């Protein structure tokens, strides 16, 4: 019997090795094919966008030079408008539209996409007012002075209001680097804030909303707002010595994405907020923005076993994912 067992194990080992190598080859083939398709698609998209950028480039350069002439000698005003007021205006415009749904439940064609059913229907008005006051404080008492103070530092590194606008490809490179830096800095600062030493005194404030809404994207303790909201988004433009146009677009995009992540609705044709919504629900999963570092550190393993993970896709139709991929029925005693 012992000899048979040894023979069986001996025969199984090559089979397992063959299975592993076969899996590796299939994985390599799949990843390689996907990479080639991605490169081809990316080249096609950038070629078309570059044509548009080139065709309109003279127009935007002319508009920028007109602005520089208008604010000649007072470029700092242009910087303040672009780095603070334009992103802030977009933040309140987008989150304001969502607030209408949060407070009234209407229009129904949006409220039906709610992720956590039965929550914030409608939102608590007293809790909302308190949150809005905190958001305004973070924006105008913290973010505004910090960005104003940053201007002379940026001028030493590379004048953000220089005459020549960045090229299309340079902006794409900046955007990729900004995103990477934000992912790394936000993930680790966010995980640090979940340490018991910092959570109770600092980060717990943000987690008062277990079912988040768009406007609370910036609802945080001042220390968290600087360390985890501002720095991850600011370091990229500082390191790259970015043009004001790149900074304005990046800050605006970062705010829109964080509103979507907190909005509480999985809307058609917009990035999925399921990942961060699950973080607010469970607290100890899904710390990052893109999910790359969560995958590497295993901080999304529980999330991957849920229906929320199945729904974590780009919705390309109009049927709510809560209907097409419903939660399993609750067990009754």
From TrEMBL:
Subcellular location: Membrane
Pfam families referenced in this protein's UniProt entry, alphabetically: FA_hydroxylase (PF04116)
InterPro entries for the chain: Fatty_acid_hydroxylase, Sterol_Desaturase_Related
Keywords assigned: Membrane, Transmembrane, Transmembrane helix
Signal peptide residue numbers: none
Main location: membrane
Domain Fatty acid hydroxylase positions: 176-299
Residue ranges crossing the lipid bilayer per the database entry: 28-49, 76-101, 135-153, 168-188, 209-227, 247-267
Protein name: Fatty acid hydroxylase domain-containing protein 2
Taxonomic source organism: Ceratotherium simum simum
Name of the encoding gene: LOC101390983
């Amino acid at each position: 019997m012992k000899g048979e067992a040894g023979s069986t194990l001996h025969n199984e080992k090559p089979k397992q090795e063959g299975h592993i190598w076969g899996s590796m080859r299939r994985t390599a083939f799949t990843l390689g094919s996907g990479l080639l398709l991605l490169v081809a698609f990316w080249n096609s998209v950038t070629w078309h966008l570059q044509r548009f950028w080139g065709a309109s480039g003279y127009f935007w350069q002319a508009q920028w030079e007109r602005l520089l002439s208008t604010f000649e000698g007072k470029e700092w005003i242009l910087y303040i408008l672009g780095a603070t007021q334009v992103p802030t205006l977009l933040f309140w415009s987008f989150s304001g539209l969502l607030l209408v749904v949060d407070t009234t439940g209407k229009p129904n064609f949006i409220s039906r996409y709610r992720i956590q059913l039965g929550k914030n229907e409608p939102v608590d008005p007293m809790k909302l007012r308190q949150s809005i006051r905190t958001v305004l404080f973070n924006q105008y008492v913290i973010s505004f002075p910090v960005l104003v103070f940053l201007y002379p530092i940026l001028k030493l590194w590379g004048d953000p209001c220089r005459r020549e606008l960045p090229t299309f490809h340079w902006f794409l490179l900046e955007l990729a680097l900004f995103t990477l830096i934000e992912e790394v800095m936000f993930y680790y600062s966010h995980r640090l804030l979940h340490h018991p030493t910092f959570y109770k005194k600092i980060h717990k404030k943000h987690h008062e909303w277990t079912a988040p809404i768009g406007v609370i994207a910036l609802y945080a303790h001042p220390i968290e707002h600087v360390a985890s909201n501002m720095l991850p988004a600011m370091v990229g433009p500082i390191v790259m010595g970015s043009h004001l146009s790149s900074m304005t677009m990046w800050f605006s995009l970062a705010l829109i994405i964080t509103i979507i992540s907190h909005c509480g609705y999985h809307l058609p044709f917009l990035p999925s907020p399921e990942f961060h919504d699950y973080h607010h629900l469970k607290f100890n999963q899904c710390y990052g923005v893109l999910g790359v570092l969560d995958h590497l550190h295993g901080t999304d393993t529980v999330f991957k076993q849920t229906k929320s993970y199945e729904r974590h896709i780009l919705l390309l139709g109009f049927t709510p994912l809560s209907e097409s991929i419903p939660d399993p029925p609750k067990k009754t005693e």
